[in-house]
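Example: Fucosyltransferase.
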Amino acid sequence: MKRLHRNHDDSDPSLSDLENTRIVSKDLNIKCVPSLKLLMAFFLLSLTLFSVLFSLSLVLRDPPSDSVPQHPSPTTTTTVFQLKQTEQGLNNDSSDSVMLHKDKLLGGLLADSFDEVSCLSRYHSVMYRSGVNGLSDNPSSYLTSSLRTYEILHKKCGPYTESYNKTVEDLRSGRLSESSDCKYVVWISYSGLGNRILTLASAFLYALLTNRVLLVDPGVDMIDLFCEPFPDVSWFLPPDFPINSQLHDFDQNSAQCYGKMLKNESLTSSTLPSSVYLHLVHDYDDQDKLFFCDEEQRFLQKVPWLVMRTDNYFIPSLFLIPDFEQELSDLFPNKETVFHFLGRYLFHPTNRVWGLVARYYEAYLAKADERVGIQIRVFDIGTGPFQHVLDQIIACTLKENLLPDVGRTKDIISSSGKPKSKAVLMTSLSSGYFEKVRDMYWEYPTLTGEIVGIYQPSHEEHQQSEKQMHNQKAWAEMYLLSLTDNLVTSSWSTFGYVAQGLGGLKPWILYKPENETAPDPPCRRAMSMEPCFHAPPFYDCKAKRGTDTGELVPHVRHCEDMSWGLKLVGNHV
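Written out as structure tokens, the predicted fold is:
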């Protein structure tokens, strides 16, 4: 992106004009005879000139209100972006830059109380997105107000505050404190990066609904991937937390597991535990799934510490809990924006990751007229690339007019004027699909005359969730995909869900191939930008019997890519 420097001319434009006035006056005095009539004319002329020059000087000193504001409002920033960048972000020494006005607080979604340099992506990412605030919709005033209220609670109850220390001491001793006004949900770092992002957003919304403070198990790399989202006090669980050593040992057979307690009927109002483990992983059983019932939520509300492990984006089922229904409706009038807003609020790449994003975007994507993202996740056993997957990708992008077809019998196709350019960002563990598509657009001209560039940042060959740099690249690629104009994703992939949600994009979803055959049709447009809950409960808590939870309310439907999954859809669907 280029920036035009704004030049402030501090010289007074009236000086040269006043000098001219002196010359005019002198000439008049030489040529005029001492006559009362001529003297009066001279006086009137001088008075008129002075009035014009005075007005002109005021206009030049004070630009009209629709020009660049001298003092931006608290929610508007003049953000400067450079083409030259360092690993830590943007370099302010470049002379080739552009100055743009954007709403850095995303319509009130973000707090204006962070050190900008420590996390460049928080306020700078808006410059890489369309629209004033870079969002697909405006957050409700109730949501922004609730986030500010949560930040106050987090500051009061977060790690090493007086309230936290007291509650932790009660946890350590096994006492149940009735006086503490701080309750917590602890999120255990578990599963791949895409799953972690989706489940962390789910845990935060649950904390927001139940007036709890969210504390995050940092795992092996969370601190290296994400900036702190809340002002003043960290969201990361301190290393001296009393049950840190037990977090990754919790499972369905643990004595603290809520599902097991329900199964054993060991819970009573007189034996309220100080902490409970919530097992919400894909293999959870019927007792664990009672978490999504009103009656159990009322009991859990009394427990100071809830420890949660999940690999599911369980937000759609929160919308089926009657006690949360009105609150969720007020927070998200448009139901398909839940992860879009929560993701843009919570997940800001660290400067190290943001450097990967910004450098790649400026080098390969920024100058294109249109950006297309293609996210490929193959679940087939064997070594790719697979021809049927390549055929499916090409069939989808051509059928949906996302990419132009090529003339295989022609050497060149001329076009009048400057041809339109498309930058295609492909992400895959394999480089094979990228190479095949790249070669197609290199070897043959497009029928439309468009120029198509194909790019792939990395090809790790297989998922390596335990490696720090692997996850930094994965996070950067999710974010880059979210910056595209149109997106194609793979069925069942949480990697794609994160990209579409952050970008506010309704992707074209590639159907999952069967029997090594490209599906026909190859893809379909998603109903909404929301992720899919892969393992929802099918239980009517009130009737205490099984039911199809995708048919209970109009805004919770079955997913396009997983028939038994649930997803949120907008009011228009």
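The radius of gyration is 30 Å.
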